[in-house]
Fold this sequence. Notes:
Layout: E1 30-34, E2 44-46, E3 57-60, E4 72-75, E5 80-91, E6 98-106, E7 112-114, E8 117-121, E9 137-144, E10 148-157, E11 160-163, E12 176-183, E13 188-193, E14 196-202, H1 203-206, E15 214-216, E16 231-233, E17 249-251, H2 263-266, E18 273-275, E19 287-289, E20 301-303, E21 320-329, E22 334-342, H3 345-355, H4 357-393, E23 408-410, E24 416-417, H5 420-430, H6 432-441, E25 451-453
Antiparallel strand pairs: 1-22, 2-5, 3-4, 4-22, 5-21, 6-12, 6-22, 7-9, 8-9, 8-21, 9-10, 10-11, 12-13, 13-14, 15-20, 16-19, 17-18, 23-24, 23-25
Amino acid sequence: GAQVLSMAMGKGAGLAIVASLLLVSVSAEVFFQEDFEDGWEDRWVKSSFKGGDEGDWKHTAGKHYGDENNKGIQTGTDYRWYDLSAATPDFNNKDKTLVLQYTVKHEQNIDCGGAYIKLAPKGVDQKKWGGDSDYSIMFGPDICGYSTKKVHVIFTYKGKNHLIKKEIKPETDVKTHIYTLIVKPDNTYEVLIDLKSVQKGSLYDDWDMIPPKIIKDPKAKKPEDWDENEEIDDPEDKKPDGYDDIPKQIVDPDAKKPEDWDDESDGEWEAPMIDNPEFKGEWKPKKIKNPAYKGKWVAPDIDNPDFVDDPEVYNVVKSNGVIGFELWQVKAGTVFDNILVCDDAEYAKAQAEKNIVPLQKKESEMKAEQDKQEEEKRKAEEEERKAKVKILTRKPQPEFSPKFSTKVLLAHGGTLFPGPGALRGILNRLGSSNSQRLNRACGLQNLHSRITET
Length: 454
């Protein structure tokens, strides 16, 4: 069995483990795990980096869930910063696979806000944890309007933050999703969403951490006699005699002077001009292949003098001491949970399949039922609204025998209705209590004030 470093509280065990050595797998080493059981506040530090603009966190499973007792932490205040961190045991990913996995649920139907997580080195001041704090890895979704919808994968290498050059789209619905980053000692990486690969490749190719080994010679210049023209004018081609004498327009040969044309009053009649079908435009010689063509000139390759190879570019986590969120959200409501940092991708997958995937299924079923109930409620409210409109538009009962004055319109609806005098008679006949009921049914505070005699 391998040693496991963890500061997590297992959901089934109900026991907080701080820098303990446990036997959990024959292969996996768990550096950090957090499932946000009761007492999570004791392990996490809320930063004062943004002062009064720091948002509050809630401990909840959210509005729809797989298990109401399986809670995460949720951003609770709109238009706020969320800077929260936890200490981790000291770990290094040298000669190891690094797996960073956690879940995100944007149940507020997020319009603008981050949901990424960071690993940071020892020495970071957790009470001042924020956007200015050093970090080694930043990973996770970031959404803002239509322009920003991406999954960040940022590595800090030699003091500089390097963004991935490939595009990774995040999930944008209101359900729980699993985000997984895998960094391997062979300098490759993979990003998974809900355990499905969405991007992978080389750390050398997809970031600019290592300069290219070969570059184009910046001092090279194209020779003066280098011919890049694939075709040239045919020197044997000659312009036909009389070509330039062909006019662009000619008199319309089919035009005839109108019978009622009077030269004295209308002036001398002139036939209209039309485009000359014989006119071919400016003459140009035909093209032929250029016998001197050498192709497009390209600067020769040379060894990059700035290239410094680093077979351990993957080793961005040197001495980790902190994990945390550093976010801005316009509309709060994102739920975070199931944080796992380990050295075995298969172990992380197995944990997700066992503890998260079943709850995702139940959550989806609950959300579908909620949507169904909301749709039924909407339909009922629509039917109720139609019934209220019917009260306003139906004919008066015969026993009231109201006298109709000039036609009137409801100020906001344009519905034909008895005049004010007749309406007062109807309300008087209904009695005080029935009049109040009619007012409420029609959604009016003062029925008299909402009609206008025309």
